[in-house]
Amino acid sequence: MTTEFADFVATQDAKNTIQLNVRKYTLMLCDALELDFKSRYPNSDPYKFSIESGRKYHKIVMETESQSRSVHAFVDQKTGEVYKPASFKAPAKHVRFNLLEINSREECFERADWAGGYLYM
After folding, report:
1. What is the pLDDT of residue 1?
2. In the chain, what is the greatest distance between 2 CA atoms, to the nearest angstrom?
3. Is the N or the C terminus of the chain less surrounded, counting Cβ atoms within 10 Å?
4. Sheet architecture: strand order including 81-85
5. What tens digit of pLDDT does each residue of 58-86 get?
């Protein structure tokens, strides 16, 4: 009986670690997007990229100085998969990047641009 509980605890720890890593990498993506905007338009008011977490996805929201908001991308909280938005509430079907895979994450951060061109297939 104790091994079952120990296995449960280990599994939960692993799940929590994955979810924390996904959030960390999502924040890093937001920072990369803000840096891209500032480097391209140094004299204009910067866009702010933030995370809104739902039940399944982290939603990366882009906000301007005039308070207009749009969804930049969706990130699956459990798998780290990055999706292009289909609407304000839902992602498109196909996975664009995976933040938990090193090569995919590095490519995502390298190609990230504030307008979302890197999310097209």
Report:
1. 53
2. 63
3. N
4. 48-53, 57-63, 69-76, 81-85, 91-98
5. 999 999 989 999 999 999 999 999 999 99
Contact 85, 72 (CB under 8 A): yes
In whole angstroms, give the CA distance from residue 94 to residue 63.
25
Tell me the C-alpha distance between 111 and 119, whole Å: 9
**The tokens 């641009």 sit on which residue?**
113
Checking if the pLDDT of 2 tops 70, the result is: no
* Residue 107 backbone phi and psi in degrees, to 5: -65, -40
Contact 58, 46 (CB under 8 A): no
Place of tokens 């890593």: 21
**Distance between CA atoms of 29 and 35, rounded to whole angstroms?**
10
Positions of E strands within 17-56: 48-53
84: its two tokens = 């292009």
Single-letter amino acid code for the residue at 113: D
Terminal-to-terminal C-alpha distance of the chain: 49
Report DSSP state, residue 66. T
